[in-house]
Design goal:
414 residues, D-amino Acid Aminotransferase, Chain A, domain 1, 19 strands, Dna Ligase, domain 1, 4 domains, four-stranded parallel sheet, 13 helices
Length: 414
């Protein structure tokens, strides 16, 4: 089989949320891995590895060169948001197919992406960069309340908050700026127009400049003013796909992306799609697993194929629906119970997967003191002939879930 180099994070969360990607790619490719720690669960899916922090350019280049000397590599891929630019640079250095590092930098930087969307006429949100509270106030007055504040180079809705009035701006800016300081490519904060409407994402595959929209993901968000995603569903028969596909393809083209898998987020404002952002990798929160469950199109395999310059297989072999529900405690505190009734799970074929990323004794902190990802106890995935059935199955499964905490006093937020 051809050999592909994958850069990835390590650890238990990587197994829970990206293990399916490695398993799917290993069914078609010999996989060699670069990750920050020695592989554990990954070993059954890989043929070789090097330990290197992908954020260390010199270490990553050395690790990639060492693997290239031992194997005939055909491509380099990642499904990790933080490694997109570094992986493109590594592929470029090794002379393998890739989007340019500059293109990946544009995709990672939301401010640059907004400029490119505007230049190419892609319907998007008005956006301004703020380095201080004063600049944020001027931007908000220019755009008009309500506005959304977000780090320019983060992911997973971390640090994203809606501000409805001027008196809320100091708190909102402090919240976004604190998360922005953890950014690699940029520590700036964006002040953006609030797009009022349901949120969806379009899961796309691009090969040699041609984009195919594979599926639409419908999203459920948590309580405002935050934008944490708490549930998703994918329906192979979703009629919205034809409407949003052209906008997604135009956004991908505006960024200059020619190959790979993209997770394109947008909102439907008065029924019309407006861009939030383009993520140049497989969608998180197991969306890349929901899509093949509903459509039969394997996005992880498509990511590997396009990284190796090969045409992806995008023929649909299923026509059903899949849904995921994130599992959260009702309050911040220490987990005292975290399990799903085993007898129920054993006799339920539509319960595709249940995973827990926290254990009893762990402390979980909900926003605003924490974030929804770190507070997440796990997730469950259900299937059905229609999205309504898949979601009803999720509700039934939640009735057999026990998730409880011993509450702790909320910390003060600056």
């Amino acid at each position: 089989m051809p050999t592909i180099l994958v850069t990835s994070t390590a650890g238990a969360e990587a197994e829970v949320y990206r293990g399916y990607c490695l398993e799917a790619v290993a069914a078609r490719y010999d996989v060699v891995l670069i990750s920050p720690a020695a592989p554990t669960w990954e070993r059954e899916f890989i043929t070789d590895f090097e330990i290197a922090d992908p954020d260390d350019a010199q270490a990553l280049a050395a690790a990639g060169q060492a693997l290239a000397e031992r194997h005939e590599l055909t491509g380099v891929a990642t499904w990790t948001e933080w490694y997109l630019v570094q992986t493109a640079r590594l592929a470029w250095r090794l002379g393998l197919p890739t989007n340019s590092p500059e293109v990946m930098e544009a995709a990672r930087n939301k401010a640059t992406a907004r400029t490119l969307f505007a230049r190419h006429g892609v319907p998007s949100a008005a956006s301004m960069t703020a380095r201080s509270l004063l600049e944020a106030a001027l931007a908000a007055e220019t755009i008009g309340y309500p506005v959304v504040l977000k780090p320019a180079a983060r992911a997973g809705s971390i640090g994203v908050i809606r501000v409805d009035r001027a008196e809320e701006l100091p708190h909102g800016f402090a919240f976004a700026a604190a998360r922005a300081r953890d950014g690699i490519e940029s520590t700036k904060v964006l002040v953006e127009e609030y797009l009022d409407g349901p949120e969806v994402s379009v899961e796309c595959v691009t090969h040699r400049g041609h984009t195919t929209a594979v599926a639409v993901t419908r999203k459920t968000l948590g309580a405002p003013p935050f934008f944490e995603e708490i549930a998703h569903s994918v329906d192979a028969a979703d009629p919205l796909l034809d409407q949003v596909a052209p906008v997604a393809a135009a956004a991908i083209k505006a960024l200059g992306i020619t190959d790979g898998v993209q997770h394109v987020e947008m909102r439907l404002v008065n029924g019309r799609p407006r861009l939030i952002e383009v993520n140049a990798r497989i969608g998180g929160d197991m969306i890349g697993h929901l899509v093949p469950l509903a459509t039969g199109v394997d996005l992880a395999r498509a990511a590997a194929d396009t990284a190796c310059g090969q045409p992806p297989r995008l023929t649909r072999t299923r026509r059903c629906a899949a849904a995921i529900r994130m599992l959260y405690p009702s309050a911040s505190g220490t987990l005292t119970h975290c399990h799903l009734d085993a007898d129920f799970a054993a006799r339920t074929p539509w319960l595709e997967q249940v995973a827990f990323q926290r254990t009893v004794g762990d402390t979980v902190v909900l926003p605003p003191d924490g974030d929804m990802f770190s507070a997440r106890a796990g997730f469950l995935i259900t299937t059905g002939p229609t999205v309504e059935t898949a979601q009803a199955h999720a509700e039934e499964a939640l009735g057999h879930l026990t998730l409880a905490v011993e509450p702790q006093p909320s910390a003060s937020v600056a």
